[in-house]
Design a protein that fits this description.
alpha/beta; Heterokaryon incompatibility domain-containing protein; HET; HetReg/Transcr_Mod
Length: 129
Amino acid sequence: EIRLVRIHGGSKHEVIKCSLKVVSLSACPSYEALSYRWGSNRQLETVQLDGHDFDVTPNLAAALRKFRKRKNRLLWIDQLCVNQTDMDERNEQVPVMGQIYSQARKVLVWLGVDSHQEAPLAQQLIRDL
């Protein structure tokens, strides 16, 4: 079993609201996986997860704001779907991460906010690879 997180629709200025859903990896609904750079653990940001405050890294909060749409979106995101304080759970989940990513309908990649307007250069580099 794995957890998937439903990002509830909203504008970029609204509080990020999410809910978790436990599914069987062998029979799970269509989802996207988010691959991102964790970034700094300082100055964590708060999202609502199942109605409770939950701290996430600023880079993940920025990704959630960027990828959130007006409608709900089902994703697998390690920071939200794996209990990071439970070493037993982490040790169980890490070996299946390859399967989690390969079964995703789409893998979204987030490197961070493009403060230097370098996204077109990065996209060209990816096309060239």
